[in-house]
Amino acid sequence: MTQPAARRIASVDLLRGLVIAIMAIDHTRDFVHWAAMDFRPEDLARTTAPIFFTRWITHFCAPVFMFCAGLGAWFRLERGGTVRDLSRFLWTRGLWLIVLDLTVVRLGFFLNVKYDVVILLVFWALGLCMIALAGLVRLPYRTILGVSAAMIILHNLFDGVRAESLGSLGWLWKVLHEQGLLTPGPPAIILAYPIVPWIGVMALGFCAGRVYRLPDDERRRMLMRIGVAATLAFVIVRGINLYGDPRPWAGQSSLAMTVISFLNCTKYPPSLSFLLMTLGPAMIFLGLVDRARPRAWNPLVVFGRAPLLFFVVHLPLIRVLAIALTAARYGMASFLFTPPPTLGTARNVFPADYGWDLWVVYTVWLLVIALMYPLCRWFVEMRQRSRASWLSYL
Description:
By secondary structure, this protein is mostly helical. It has helices at 3-32, 49-56, 61-78, 83-102, 104-110, 122-136, 141-154, 170-177, 198-208, 216-240, 255-263, 272-289, 299-305, 307-330, 358-385; strands at residues 117-120, 180-183, 188-191. 61% of the residues lie in helices and 3% in strands.
């Protein structure tokens, strides 16, 4: 890889590292914050601005992960690989992510090896999207871009379709576009991440790779223009309030709550408004940092180059810290190793005063970031020294 190309990819590492770090806020909130035990931060009847925006800022994570995965596939191809090799890498890595979702990631969230309830989470969606992209990359560029745009722009036309109306194909519709119970069990399978339009987002990232062929100044202008256009499109589409999200916004009792209602877009599956709201600023960020020349030890670069390791390890780390907090307050209580209500446990299993304020959430989050940095830096340096091909799957 040429030095200019490496510098361009460093800007993507910065973006990916930023959202990886932000992601840990949400998972810390799940296990530590008192409000997470009682209501969703998007509940306008109960939320506050600090609670809502602690959740809202993490909405950027999943779209950026998907988009950057597509960009990474493009960069891999640009480094001299063939479409056939890229396709093989994508479907095998996709299968690997699904295995991780059902094993290591599940254990990190639940500390439970029983499979009476299985929740298919973000790695499941990432894996399926990579498998889908493995097929899409064999198509002409314009076809890939058209499929991506159609998924992202048009999928909300089908919000009224319900799985129960499709008979024996209802399960397939849930995989594609409807969050909820896939099978009643045992085991009960809950699908948290339907894959449309996530496939389109990953394919869009692959198509956006062509922007990185442009000369420096032209590339920066293009990234900024696309980002500003998408952000303005969000304001317009959301403001019209007729299409783009199944959850319309409405005026509230205060300006702050009205803004919150406006920003309270649907994530499962991600609406057109949700994706414009998140990917637009992400593109602007890429344009702004394109000139940056971060050092290899920059924390965001380090996290951006070890996202899988960060995700897998930070979950049990948060659990250990949450268990330590809980044991310090309640002693060795029976609920100590029980997942919080955000992951399906009944609220009455926990004491009425369970949970801590937001400042504790952010303190634990900073501790997680500090502890993850040396591990991720060691891994990045080790991978750079090694020529083992299997490390590309981590």
